[in-house]
Specification:
CATH architecture: Roll
Order of helices and strands: HEEEEHEEHE
Structural class: alpha+beta
Number of domains: 1
Helix content: 10-25%
CATH class: Mainly Beta
Number of helices: 3
CATH superfamily: Electron Transport, Fmn-binding Protein, Chain A
């Protein structure tokens, strides 16, 4: 059974984490969890101020080489009547704005700050400012019960 459009919308606005799948330049799959917020029809994920390994993240390198991405939101319960998932096939764009005053970028940052109170103490963006914008191409879903 599919999740209703309203149910998908509600989960996209409130669910705290998604799993991102990309492909390396060698064609291997690469998966990582990430935070995201919806703004102006796209999903946005920052390269934020949490500690990172290395300079450019693998997800950013992968998406520069191949912008096809898959995002998975899911909820597992021991009560299997509560299970659900949403898969979003998307085209991704690595955005390194010259200014965070750009209206689309500032709206995305506000959406991330609103969704994640942790950004009150952790910078939403580190230097250089980098976000990933996901343009949904196809959304699939499943829910155990309506």
């Amino acid at each position: 059974m599919q999740i209703s459009e309203a149910g998908i919308s509600q989960r996209l606005d409130t669910w705290p984490v998604a799993r991102l799948a990309t492909r390396t330049t060698e064609g291997r799959l690469h998966q990582v969890p990430l935070v995201f917020a919806r703004s102006r029809g796209r999903l946005w994920s920052p390269v934020d101020g949490k500690p990172k390994r290395g300079e450019e993240l693998a997800r950013v390198r992968n998406l520069r080489a191949n912008p096809e991405a898959s995002l998975l939101l899911d909820d597992y319960h021991s009560d299997w009547t509560q299970l659900w998932w949403i898969r979003i096939e998307a085209t991704a764009e690595v955005v390194q704005p010259a200014s965070v005053d750009d209206p689309e970028v500032s709206a995305a940052i506000r959406a991330l700050e609103t969704k994640y109170p942790q950004y009150a103490t952790v910078p939403v963006l580190r230097s250089p400012p980098t976000l990933i914008a996901f343009e949904p191409v196809r959304i699939s879903s499943w829910i155990a019960s309506s």
